[in-house]
Design a protein that fits this description.
By secondary structure, the protein is α+β, with helices and mostly antiparallel strands. The chain has helices spanning 2-13, 15-20, 23-36, 71-84, 109-118; strands spanning 92-97, 128-131, 135-138, 145-157, 160-170, 173-184, 187-198. It contains 5 helices and 7 strands. Helix 1 (2-13) crosses helix 3 (23-36). It comes from Altererythrobacter arenosus.
Length: 199
Amino acid sequence: MAHNLRFFGTLGRHSRLSCAMPFRSNLPLILAATSLGACVAPSTTEPVADPPLETELPSVGSYTTELPDTPGMALLQNLLDEQFANPDRYATTCATIVNDNARTEALPEEVALALIERYPELAPFARCVWKDDAMVVDAITGERAVIYSVRRITCQAKDDCLAWGGWVTANLDAEAWEYRLRRVDGKWLAERTGNGVIS
């Protein structure tokens, strides 16, 4: 077998000459080539690169993950825009959406990460905890913190809704306002109705 491999290497380097020899003198070469493949000239085709094992996720605008296109998320972003534009804000801000007056808890992980991607100063929801049932503090630093939330979302039509949005930092330090949310030109617009609660 070792002899045949060496012979095939010679045949490969001189394949055009070997294939052009008379049949009788070329017979041993033909038999050797047949046993290992065929008498073929070296290929000049460029090798095709294998596709990458991982592909980059398509971005959504300038972000990698898309947020839910809902009136609640639109209002929450409206509130966070106002919060992070305020230079006197608390250092730690958390946010969530409460459905059907349920207990306040974190957003689904993928939604929370997408929101933090847009608001890098937004803290994970677990960072905001109640201390002595009296005030909200940062679970790591112990400093005062604030929770923004949207709740009581009701829709009279698919593009016309009402919701309450606001913030709380202590039992006697909170605000909530009712908003009307309308979908115009593919975007949700939030406007206060005038109803609100301040403590």
